[in-house]
Predict the 3D structure of the following.
Amino acid sequence: MKGKTKKKGISDKLWLLLSFCAALVVWYLLSLGKRTGNSFPFIPVVIEGLQTMIDRGAFWSDLFSSLTSIAAGFGLGFLTAVPAAFLMAWYMPVRKIIEPWINFIRNIPALAYAPLIVIAAGVGKPPQIILIWICTFMTMSITIFHGIRSIDNTLIKAARVLGANDMDIFFRIILPATLPFVITAVRLGLSAGLTTLLAAESTGAQGGLGMRIRSLQTTFETGAMLAYIIIIGIIGLLLNLFVDIIERRLTSWQERREE
């Protein structure tokens, strides 16, 4: 039996370094442009802008405000998306009633109905959390639902023939088969929460990364604004990394294809 030979080539870390260097070059060229220079200031200006926001005492409070909104909205989205997805998959009447509305609402930008949420819930944290909850719920519920629907019915029928009850089928077949889709839904839900942040914090928020970006836009502080945008991207990368770690631990039994 022949052993597997490892392909030689550029390592992932080197590819990442090359990608980072290429991005820096593009960024630097944009900072030199007559039309793009003001919109894309280079690193020293961005660092200076971030330091200014820290000195004003705004950055850490904005970061905390956004993270708490995302955590609360995503938490509610996950807790409601999982049971909704299972109910849609198991009960046809529930699916016929709920699925069309999920498909309808998830195609509407959150910014479009944000004013309605503010009128209903008032200003402050509640409308932010509600908006993030709606967007994460729509994304995660439909992802988990399609994951459950993709389970091979032959496995369930075979388990019943062997005497398995509903609890056995759920915990030994459905739950393990659905877990990868749940993790994918979590990843997509976190991304949806971050992308909804700007719309959520345009609802009369007193703080937050999204609110501050809009505020800095009016004063043309592009260095600080770009710093905040980069911070949101870094948060997204860290959340993805966290989900990857959880995925490796929970789905280690799955066979993975080597790139």
Notes: Residues 1-5 have pLDDT under 50 and may be disordered. The two ends are 22 Å apart (CA to CA). Residues 44-250 form a domain with the MetI-like fold fold (CATH 1.10.3720.10).
